[in-house]
Structures are given as structure tokens and as C-alpha cells.
Amino acid sequence: MDTEKEDDKILLERTANSFLCYKQYALDEFWRPRVLKWESLSEHQKRMLPWYESYLKDVRNGIETNSIFYLNLLEQSVEMWGLNTDPRSWPIPSAVDMSKTVSILNQIAREWSSICAEERDKFLPLVREFLEESFPSGRDTVKILIPGAGLCRLAVDMVQLGFNTEANEVSYHMLMVGQFILNSDLQEEGIALHPFVHSFSHHINRAQQLRQIHIPDLNISERVVGENLLSMVSGSFPDIYGPNINIKQSESYSNSAAIREIRAENRNSKDVVVTNFFMDTSSNILDYLETISHVLKDGGYWINFGPFMYHFEQDHQTELTADFDPCTGEVSNELNTPLKGIELSHEDVIQTATTYFPFKPIKQKAGIPSTYGTDVNDISMLGYQCSFWILQKVSIK
Ligand SMILES: C[S@@+](CC[C@H](N)C(=O)[O-])C[C@H]1O[C@@H](n2cnc3c(N)ncnc32)[C@H](O)[C@@H]1O
């Protein structure tokens, strides 16, 4: 096995192990401290909350229900992803792996439950209306790419409209959960989950925290299977779809002969790129602009929706970046570079894309309020002001 494949297997098995460890982790992190706190109260105070012990039992039951989801997922994933059948050989998950395993339950609610339908409808009608008008027929030959596709809900929505859709995702958590949801012939609303059970603030009542959701909100196999219109590609967006020039080698953009060939093949290959809550995941947003411009055909569209909450803004880590020769791969000018740093605003992105890249604006709107992974009953007011735009790549012959 080459080193790259070996590294991938380690990451996959670590992710799988984080699913396996979910129950113990969630009980230790969220349930047990509250049991201890409850036990520490004076008898006088305990009498004020006569329902509290049964509430703690419900929290525990919610965690147990979630852990059953992960156990079912693992039953399928071992074979699907070629993992070692003995989980005792899997690497220990990191704290970050465990927190992703918890937060992905909210992502499942966002993408695959009816309670977040209103949230998804902030964007879906905008993209649907434009695509239906622009491509009235022959949609199975229209190639849509969705980078940072998460659990593939938007990709399935695009397939339902008849488009040939490629979902790209870098996170093994997303890929494993997404594959399970898409490929397990799940019954509509067949799986129960308690995604909000780990969050103890911002509830108008206890029932909200303990609320059970049922996923998926539609019969996926009826909508997708047989059409052969959906594919998933694992890896970092610039790494796979970017140009072989202008981007520095980094952790998200590598430089083997094989990957340079894939990138060259992907040039001018897509009719539409849809970025949904994705642009702010970049450490250098210009790399994403280079990549979108490279992968789109002349005349193709870039449709964006999402906030500017840059994921690396508070990150103190650095990574090694370098120049390289696009023909030989020879590396030079290695530099230790901060992950944070190029955080452009809505206006900066549009100005840069239309001045230094071959894009012309078709539509744009800023300040569209949206939540993320919560329903309309959420009182936290933790929302985002999102930007929507459609740019067209013009021919530069
Ligand atoms: C905020 S989530 C949005 C997910 C989905 N688009 C949605 O709207 O629910 C951002 C996603 O982008 C993925 N991502 C981050 N950097 C990426 C990269 N360089 N290439 C591909 N995916 C990436 C993350 O793993 C995550 O699933």
C-alpha cells in the first residue's frame, strides 16, 4: 500500500473509531457532569426540581439512541470503506474527531430532516429557479459540481432536477455519514435521532432539547438510484479541481504527478459550480477563486450562498507552503505560513472575481438571514447574514 493510501486508511479508521466511541464520550462529556452536579445539590434545592432526575434519564436515552445510529452505520462502513474488521486495531480518535462526531448530528438535521426544510429553502428555490430557466432540457448532460457538499442533500436535490451532479467533500466524517445515508436504502423517516441533546443553552423548554427527529425526510433511493447522475469525490477542492499554476503547495493542495494530471483533466469540465456555506472554509479564498475559474467551462455559472464566517480566523496554526514546478513538480521557497489571513468580504470577492478572473455578475444579494442546523423554534438567534450571487465565466479567447 502506498503512503497516501495508508494515511487515508488511518484517517478513515480513526473516524470510524470516533463513531464507535460516541456513546462513552457523550455520556462523559454531557451527561455525567450533570448527574454529579445534580447529586451535589442540597436536599432543599433538589426538591425545587422534582423532574430533574427523569430529565437526566431522557438525556441519557437520547445519547443512547444516537449511538445506535452510529453502530448501524459502522456495520455498513467496515466493508464499504475496506476497514480492518477488528475495531481494536483502529487508531484512537482525537478530541477534534469526537467533537465532529457530536456536531455532525446537527448537520444531519440540517440536511436530512423536515425540521430544517425552511432553512434549506433559503437557498434551494433561488438555485432551482435559475437552473430550470437556464437549462430547460438535456439536463442529464449538464455537469454540476458541489464542493464542500457535506452530507450531499443539495446534490440529491440537483439530481432530482435531472442534473449530472458531482459532490466533493474533504471530511471523512461527512463522507462516511453521507455514504451511509445515501446508500443504505433507508426508509423515509426510518431513523430516530436526538441532535440537540448535547446543547444545554437557548431552550425555551426541555422538550426542545430532547426533541427527536426522524431522517431522511424523503425516500432517497427512489429519487437517486438508477439515474446514475450522482457521484461523490473525496478530497480537497483546490487539490482536485484547481489549476497547476498560481496556487502554492499546502496541506490542501498537493503536488504529485498523479494529482497534477487529475487537475489538468478537470480543466473546463463543469457547467455549474454551486458553493453553499463553503467559501469561508478557505484559508486562502483566492485558491477557491482560481479553482472555480479553472474547473468551469466558458459560459458556465458559479452560484454561491453562505456567510463570511471564516473558519480559520481564530486558528493559530501554521502550515508548510511552497512553490513547485508544474511540469517536474520540483519544490522551492518552502515557507511556514499562518492558516488565517486572507478573509475577503462579499464586495472584495465580487470585485476580485470580476477584475482578475473572467467572471461577470448575473445576480447578487447580501444580508439574507439564515440559521444553520436549527429549526424555526430555536431562540438562540445564532444566525448568519448570507450572500447569494450568480457569476458567469466569460470566454477569454
Ligand atoms: C459549513 S459546511 C457546509 C456543508 C454543506 N454545503 C451545507 O451547506 O450544509 C462546509 C463543508 O465544506 C467541507 N470542506 C472544507 N474545506 C474543504 C475543501 N478544501 N474541499 C472540500 N470540502 C471542504 C467541510 O468538510 C464541510 O463539510
TrEMBL record:
Gene Ontology MF, one: carnosine N-methyltransferase activity
GO biological process: methylation
One Pfam family linked to the record: CARME
SUPFAM superfamilies: S-adenosyl-L-methionine-dependent methyltransferases
The keyword Hydrolase is annotated on this UniProt entry: no
EC numbers for this chain: 2.1.1.22
Name of the featured protein: carnosine N-methyltransferase
Protein species of origin: Kluyveromyces dobzhanskii CBS 2104
